[in-house]
Write a structure and sequence with these properties.
Layout (H helix, E strand, L loop, with lengths): L10 H16 L3 H7 L4 H9 L6 H11 L3 H10 L2 H6 L5 H16 L8 H17 L5 H17 L6
């Protein structure tokens, strides 16, 4: 062993693994997903293989076609865990986090500049510690998610340059 760590996977490899994991979790074929995304099969295959650059429009279209979490697909790449996308496909965890960050940003505005890292770390790790203690669902939580997801969609930039 040379002691040199292996090169980390490329973004495309991570997204490819995440997309495949979600598609298989849903029991769909590439052709079914391509059709649902209103995309040529070959274009979809290039997206799924990670051969293209990260494309937020394709990620959102894939998530809509598979009823999964687009932000979990993005975070799967960021955190290096393709399985996070599959694990979050049903509960929309990353969308929930993104909605909460969006609302927090809208509320706190420039006061965010005054928050120190220690306070933020304590708040975020405290939230995750609470989640480890138990997970409950409710109609109120589903309504919160639906409203927040609509707000995210309304403020998402349109594709293009």
């Amino acid at each position: 062993m040379s002691g040199v760590p292996p090169d980390p996977p490329r973004d495309g490899e991570l997204l490819s693994a995440a997309v495949k994991a979600v598609r298989r979790h849903r029991g769909l074929t590439p052709a079914e997903v391509a059709a649902a995304m209103n995309m040529a099969l070959r274009t979809y295959e290039r997206f799924e293989s990670g051969a293209t650059r990260l494309n937020l429009d394709h990620i959102h279209r894939f998530a809509a076609a598979t009823n999964s979490d687009p932000y979990a697909l993005i975070l799967a790449v960021v955190i290096g865990s393709p399985e996070f996308a599959r694990r979050s496909a049903d509960n929309k965890m990353a969308t929930i986090l993104t909605i909460a960050v969006q609302r927090f940003d809208r509320t706190i505005q420039d006061r965010l500049l005054d928050l120190d890292a220690r306070t933020l770390i304590a708040a975020v790790t405290g939230m995750f510690d609470t989640l480890l203690d138990g997970d409950e669902t409710s109609e109120q939580a589903q309504a919160w998610l639906k409203t927040g997801a609509a707000e995210l969609l309304a403020t998402r930039p349109k594709p293009g340059r």
